[in-house]
Amino acid sequence: MAKSNFRPLHDRVVVRRVESESKTAGGIIIPDTAKEKPQEGEIIAVGSGARDEAGKLVP
């Protein structure tokens, strides 16, 4: 995937999903309807951080 040309604002992040396997170790094919949403991802970009009550930047 190409590098993105944008940065998220403030305390936001951009995450790319990690593709899950469509087969088990035993060779059983898992249908799309039985798959769970991925709980892992790769961080692509992060924002600069949020500001606290005093106005200081908190990464």
Outline of the structure:
With 59 residues, the chain is mostly beta strands. The protein has no helices and four strands.
Biggest sheet strand line-up: 1-2
Question: Main β-sheet, in a few words?
Answer: 2 strands, antiparallel
Shape: elongated
The percentage of residues in β strands lies in 25-35%
The poorly predicted ranges are none
Radius of gyration equals: 18 Å
Q: How many DSSP H or I helices?
A: 0
Descriptive terms for the model:
59 residues; mainly beta; elongated
Notes on the protein architecture:
The structure is a single chain. With 59 residues, this protein is mainly β. The protein has a domain at 1-17 and 39-58. It is 0% helix and 25% strand. It has no helices and four strands. The protein has strands at 13-17, 41-46, 50-51, 57-58. The strands form two sheets. The chain has a two-stranded antiparallel ribbon with strand order 1-2. The chain has a two-stranded antiparallel ribbon with strand order 3-4. A hairpin with a 5-residue loop joins strand 3 (50-51) and strand 4 (57-58). The chain is elongated, with a radius of gyration of 18 Å. The mean pLDDT is 83.
In terms of topology, how is this protein built?
Elements: E1 13-17, E2 41-46, E3 50-51, E4 57-58
Antiparallel strand pairs: 1-2, 3-4
